[in-house]
């Protein structure tokens, strides 16, 4: 052998094998809420090794050496093709090689005889830019812990007690059924249901809603109306269904498409800066920005790679809006209803730009417990809690577990990753059920890792997933979007679609995870570590593993960990309402006022109409002189005049009010300045809202100070 041939010899890693088969096997899940007690042997550490073969024919110059199946050294088993992440549908370069392969995963281990002695594990990567294979190993350890503790049905098992048979939950919808459900949820049932055509209020509401949509939002509605229309014509052969061409009339030659403020500017900005831009533009619809990105990259023939090995989590930030940032919970229920309808259409339009046709699953009917703590629906838990603590938004049991873990200290190494003792967790679960509400539970005896295991058990045992059956597929599909910015935008919209109880509970969790990560120097739990450990607990709800194939489970591992990673990292951005949605809500309110005014004009005489314009409120004289009148009906100083200046913010108004009324016994953080009326129903203002800019946007609003419970 020549010297050159000797130097070209190398080593090929052909597969990864673990000792998962040596771990104790678990029988079927017992039909109880809490996990079945088990007598555990001392935990065998799950380790693994790579199969190494010497490559005698390495030719780096042309890469034409024989393959493992055509020549050279062969292993005893063939290596199946690598499993693609769900995001591969949108990118040929999907998740990097740390995604487990069916032939090299913890579930596919060689026989004990052929397994060599475990090697010393490598040090963990400190980078939080991407998930490496060692960090994903924590994911599979967590899956094993869930299965061994009885916290999740194994593959092929029927799931927990009381579940409806799987066939009923996975019923395939009829043709057009999903489009019909989508339009109904968006409040646009009139577009396909003739019986609602005579409902004047419904028709006007739909007309107002449609008049505020962007081009991409309108296209999403039109696409589903067209599909359903064709289905109905085939099914019933009825010709008098509303024609989509009458609903979405294309602009005449002399007309120009309506553009939201800043749209063209943002479009050019996205073209030039693309993924390196870290400022999130929330003034232009996300779907419009995605269209610009797609068109530009198609022309440039650029292939997006959202999950490449060196991917980054940019330091995204919102552009400061002088009219104030609107967070979830700041708006009245009436305006939140409008927000939800708009967000449903916008999120669908955003996924449409990437060619992702979301098929929402119908809500499933699952028999559930009517009382208790574990395995109880969120709505039932909160109903129980409201009788003890009115206004509770997050289940008391979850709040108390989080508080206990934090009181004991977040420096405990392996917090959330190291499981508690299964038999002890089982007993604690039963004790919680009987003594939590009585206040007799011995919290001082609850260990850190046991408390963390109970917290994870609570999430897994929810009868329906925390991210809901309807939108779980949408959360999975986030990884298919081509850029991190679009993924973040999609998550923002999906969180707005979640029911209030699910949304508030999820926020409490990710805030807690963030506080755990703040102590990573001591507890060794980085953003990636927490994400991979919590992903199976959030996404593997009761009976989940009996509903997916093993291949699907592998492909979702890294995807779900990535979604949890985004939820934790960008929580301060995700629980906000984008400004373009707020602009559309204001437009709808103004359009409704105009229609109400026209109705009154028809019913009343012209003279009376000129003196009775409730929707066209006159601007107060004080406001015309540069002042606003701030009301405070809950306090002794019921009102005060405030001069508008360019630098006056909402927080300054509250500070001035507290300085003038010494009888107020609440802190400024417990007060909120509300914008009421005009083109908004009610909105709690961000402290950094510039009052003069907001007054110019809504000059007929009233300004009221109230105590608020956050």
SSE layout and pairing:
Elements: H1 3-8, E1 10-18, E2 48-55, H2 133-148, H3 166-169, H4 177-185, H5 200-211, H6 215-236, H7 244-247, H8 263-273, E3 279-280, H9 286-300, E4 317-318, E5 326-327, H10 333-353, H11 378-388, H12 396-408, H13 422-435, H14 448-460, H15 469-477, H16 484-497, H17 500-517, H18 520-523, H19 527-539, H20 550-569, H21 571-574, E6 576-577, H22 579-603, H23 606-611, H24 621-624, E7 627-631, E8 639-643, H25 650-660, E9 671-677, E10 680-684, H26 691-697, E11 702-707
Parallel strand pairs: 3-4, 7-11
Antiparallel strand pairs: 1-2, 5-6, 7-8, 9-10, 9-11
Helix pairs in contact: 2-19, 4-6, 5-22, 6-10, 8-9, 9-10, 10-16, 10-22, 12-14, 13-14, 14-19, 17-20, 19-20
How does the overall form come out from the CA principal axes?
Answer: globular
Radius of gyration: 29 Å
What is the spatial order of strands in the main beta sheet?
A: 8-7-11-9-10
- Which percent band covers the strand fraction? 5-15%
Unreliable parts:
2-32, 37-127, 153-169, 251-276, 302-310
Describe the sheet with the most strands: 5 strands, mixed
How much helical structure, as a percent, in the residues? 40-55%
Tell how many strands the DSSP assignment holds. Answer: 11
**SS element count, helices:** 26
Mean pLDDT: 74
Distance from first to last alpha carbon: 76 Å
Structural classification: alpha+beta
